[in-house]
UniProtKB/TrEMBL annotation:
UniProt keyword terms in alphabetical order: Signal
Identification of the protein by name: DUF1592 domain-containing protein
Domain DUF1588, residue spans: 722-821
Domain DUF1587: 132-195
Length: 945
């Protein structure tokens, strides 16, 4: 308890973090554009806008001439941003009013862009930096990459809020007391998991429920579990490194219905190896309390093995009196595979290997489980459930090999049923030495019995364990149970001196650099050293001391939060470069959604990261962790995350629910974006391309021949009506209603997510388009839509939306091609507000590339900046967007090069700053780790959080 209170104190003291408190300062500029406004802009506004919004009129509480002078009008960015939006989308003037020419619209919009949103390029404002906690994805990835723990602890955290379309925005990522409690609990559990020492070679693979895929029947993820709703199978994959006996442990639950429990079978590579039924029931609230643990052993061969769970007895009773017990379902939380079950030399966790730089914190160790022994004599000896059971006197033996001569520590974990006057007694023979050990603990409680052997020879040795004092009288029975045996040594083996002060400072500094993404400050190092000293006084092991320090670091805001950057040097004109550790952290959480690796930190410590920035960006994108940019950036910008959540009408579109089609739709779009990114192709291919990625399932759905197997491959689309992201089935289904296509949703997705010109919200009290249930449906959707558009309040918005949406009417609600809608020919023609005509998605795609590339590029850049900075954009950021657009055009819109430009931009490289003292990093000691320590540098004014 004393150590636990000390860990809490250190967590709190490490959580003193700085936040920027400096407001931007903008120099007063000249009255730009005044002459253009008076001569050209104002006449257009007076002619087409002031009837309702000027000259004393303020329809909708919006007047454009309420400023006392031009300077005040020019500074009203909010008003002009609204004018820009409604004029660019042609929402205003209303359709029944006189309209400005395209040239007049462009004139007004250019003046707004050039003059209202002008920013002095000699005094760029990098924007406000928000202290931003890691979201769930970043937390899991950081734990995975830094601590080598892949248990995804954040899956039990509350969902992250989103802002500006993303879940990594600092201003919305709050920290509630409940979440802080979960962070502290996770720190304790993850630290223990990261710092393990055990026999080497024992493979473990934890497959969570959502890693299983439904291969037959219907099912989906629920509450972090995979649920089967009908008879069918869910399949996961594990890779076995060496053949042998493995233990498989399942955590199962069920929804009950009828008289039977949910029955299941477990299959490996298609062959049934185990079956049973689930008694426990999930009530929708207590997940952990509803889980039933099932474990069994089986022999597995080397290589990839499929592990399937089959639901055998689905049941549904719509008339059951308890509505919560009408549908029987099978739920899987996780599957754990461990083995092979045999003796191995000691190993320590990958994190410990890295932290200790190859030194061991524990000598060599062999583990022998109770049922690994061989029965020697005694009819009452049984080997079962991982232990040796002595129901009467008898013995077991096991041969083992020692790596070298020496004395070894032997530890037996055993328990007993006590009876009679004596305690249960074991006899242990190792080599020529025999020891007698009494089990003194009460019934069923494990006890560790240990002794040090005389000198043993390297090579083969034998251990014999026997139960020697069986007793039975009047129903009272004395029995013994051998759980496992550890042989550790030889004694005196060289191990890491974790508690030695110089070495302790070394490993704490090394750990802190990775956990805090910057060198540990001297004050924090002293606090953590105090924790190590206290752990030693309390008799903690080396392993426990490291785990306590790690736990304290994980509970610190310096681990949980990104932000409060440090400047790299002199401050000028209200901004300064962030130092290279801050840059490394920004870079890694942008591209990897995870912490910087050793190479990034090494370059930052040497002050060489900026000089190698382009090469590092390309390395990171090419790394397997670069998939995070597709999964988390494209997954939110283009809504790819939502594809698997779609639920088209099951009776109308049964094909959608067969096999892996829904998952394959998402995979196509992800691989398509990732290919453009990794191959540094033009981002304009998102709008139009002549290829995509398919497997056999998706190819059959598309009607494309020649694609075989479940593996995705690049496929030419020449001669097909598809191309680019917008004609991929996942996007088409995502932007449809469950029963039909939706030109409004498809148009809105294109305008808002792809072109960054969102339509205004629908007027109030306007009914949504729809058909009366049960009424006869006649004509195409487009024909039925015309009546809805006839409402004057709807027509202006739909004139903007509909041409884009109806271009995709040849694709049905799940993305299949069709020539007819309701037995009539599909009309996919359209006309843009600028006058260009097209027929169908193929012609629209070419228009988008030719005429809308500026809008698309601006939208892509704005989203990259929002995602990489973890904040929304403000008016000063328009300067950087324009600069990045110019660079994108010069670089032929290549996506990887554009990301390099974003990383080199002012808001990514700099911070608002004033001169202040930064806390000094820890001073080097004679045992300083290889990671460099930066000198004290100017830092922002800070406030205690």
């Amino acid at each position: 308890m004393k150590l636990r209170r000390l860990v809490t104190f250190v967590v709190v003291s490490l959580s003193s973090v700085g936040m920027a408190m400096v407001k931007p300062v903008f120099a007063a500029g000249e009255l730009r554009g005044h002459q253009t406004f008076e001569k050209s802009v104002l006449p257009v506004l007076q002619t087409f806008c002031y009837d309702c919004h000027g000259d004393g009129m303020d329809k909708g509480d919006f007047a454009m001439d309420g400023h006392k002078d031009y300077a005040e009008a020019l500074s009203d960015k909010k008003m002009w941003d609204h004018v820009r939006e409604i004029m660019s989308t042609h929402v205003m003037p209303p359709e029944d009013k006189d309209q400005p020419t395209l040239e007049e619209r462009k004139l007004v919009l250019k003046w707004i862009e050039d003059e209202v949103f002008w920013v002095d390029p000699t005094k760029p404002d990098p924007g406000h930096v928000t202290l931003r906690r890691m979201n769930r994805t970043e937390y899991n990835n950081t734990v995975r990459d830094v601590l080598k723990v892949n248990s995804r602890p954040a899956r039990n955290f509350p969902p992250d809020d989103t802002g500006y379309g993303y879940d990594n925005i600092g201003s919305v990522l709050s920290l509630s007391p409940m979440l802080m409690e979960k962070y502290l609990r996770s720190a304790r559990e993850v630290a223990a998991e990261a710092v393990w020492v055990r026999p080497a070679g024992r493979f473990e693979d934890e497959l969570s429920g959502d890693e299983f895929k439904v291969s037959s029947g219907s099912g989906s993820e629920r509450y972090g579990m995979m649920a089967l709703f009908g008879n069918g199978e869910m399949v996961g994959t594990t890779e076995i490194k060496e053949p042998g006996l493995y233990r498989v442990t399942l955590l199962l639950s069920s929804n009950k219905s009828g008289d039977e429990n949910a029955k299941y079978a477990v299959l490996v590579d298609g062959k049934e190896v185990f079956n049973g039924e689930v008694e426990k029931e999930f009530d929708g609230k207590d997940i952990d309390g509803s889980l039933e643990r099932v474990a069994f052993d089986l022999n597995l061969e080397k290589g990839k093995r499929s592990l399937a769970v089959r639901f055998l007895n689905d049941h549904f009773d719509d008339n059951a009196p308890d509505k919560h017990r009408r549908d029987r379902n099978l739920l899987l939380r996780s599957a754990h595979v461990e083995g092979p079950i045999k003796m191995k030399a000691v190993a320590q966790s990958p994190f410990l290997e890295w932290l200790m730089q190859g030194k061991k914190i524990s000598p060599a160790q062999l583990e022998i489980q109770g049922d690994d022994f061989e029965k020697l004599d005694g009819g009452g000896v049984f080997l079962q459930n991982k232990r040796a059971v002595f129901a009467s006197n008898g013995s077991v033996k096991r041969e083992f090999e020692l790596p070298s001569d020496g004395e070894y520590r032997v530890m037996l974990v055993a328990n007993a049923n006590q009876a009679g006057d004596e305690r249960a007694r074991l006899s242990v023979k190792v080599g020529d030495e025999v020891r007698t050990l009494d089990i003194t603990e009460p019934d069923g409680k494990n006890q560790t019995l240990s002794f040090t052997t005389k000198k043993l020879k390297a090579g083969k040795n034998t251990i014999v364990v026997g139960f020697v004092n069986d007793f039975y009288l009047n129903g009272k029975d004395r029995n013994a149970y051998l759980e496992e045996v550890y042989i550790v040594g030889p004694t005196g083996s060289e191990t890491a001196q974790v508690f030695e002060p110089a070495f302790a400072r070394e490993w704490i500094s090394r750990m802190g650099l990775k956990m805090f993404r910057r060198p540990v400050e001297a004050g924090d190092l002293n606090k953590l050293m105090g924790l190590v000293v206290m752990a030693q006084k309390e008799g903690a092991s080396r392993q426990e001391a490291i785990s306590l320090v790690l736990e304290a670091m994980m509970g610190s805001s310096k681990f949980l939060f990104n932000g409060a950057p440090d400047v790299a040097g002199p401050v000028g004109k209200g901004s300064a470069l962030v130092n290279e550790f801050t840059l490394a952290s920004r870079l890694s959480y942008f591209i990897w959604s995870s912490a910087p690796d050793d190479q990034l930190l090494e370059l930052a410590g040497k002050g060489q990261l900026r000089a190698n920035l382009k090469a590092e960006v390309k390395r990171m994108i090419g790394d397997w962790k670069g998939w995070a940019l597709t999964e988390n950036f494209a997954g939110q910008w283009l809504r790819l995350r939502d594809i698997e959540l779609m639920s088209p009408h099951q009776r109308r579109f049964p094909e959608f629910y067969k096999g892996s089609l829904r998952r394959d739709m998402k995979k196509e779009s992800e691989l398509f974006f990732d290919h453009i990114l990794r191959d540094n192709r033009s981002a304009l291919e998102i709008l139009d391309s002549d290829y995509t990625f398919m497997n056999e399932t998706l190819a059959k759905f598309y009607g494309v021949e020649g694609v075989k197997g479940s593996k995705f491959q690049k496929v030419s689309l020449k001669g097909t009506p598809r191309g680019g992201l917008l004609t991929q089935a996942g996007i088409l289904a995502l932007t449809s209603h469950p029963t039909r296509t939706s030109p409004v949703k498809r148009g809105q997705f294109l305008l808002e997510n792809v072109l960054g010109t969102p339509p205004p919200p629908a007027p109030q009290n306007i009914p949504e388009f729809g058909e009366d249930r049960g009424a006869k449906v006649e004509g195409t959707l487009r024909q039925r839509f015309e009546a809805h558009r006839a409402n004057p309040s709807c027509s202006s918005c739909h004139a903007f939306l509909d041409p884009f949406g109806f271009a995709f009417e040849n694709f049905d609600a799940i993305g299949r091609w069709r020539d007819q809608d309701n037995k009539e020919a599909v009309d996919a023609t359209g006309k843009l507000l600028t006058g260009e005509k097209f027929n169908g998605a193929a012609e629209l795609r070419k228009l988008l590339v030719d005429l809308k590339r500026d809008d698309f590029t601006r939208t892509l850049i704005e989203n990259l900046l929002i995602y990489s900075l973890g904040r929304g954009l403000d008016y000063p950021d328009k300067l950087f967007v324009r600069q990045l657009k110019e660079k994108a055009a010069e670089g032929e819109y290549r996506l990887q090069d554009l990301i390099v430009s974003v990383v080199e931009s002012v808001p990514f490289q700099k911070m608002r700053a004033t001169v202040a003292a930064a806390p000094a990093p820890a001073a080097p000691t004679p045992a300083t780790p290889s990671a460099p320590v930066t000198p004290a540098a100017p830092k922002q004014e800070t406030a205690q959080k």
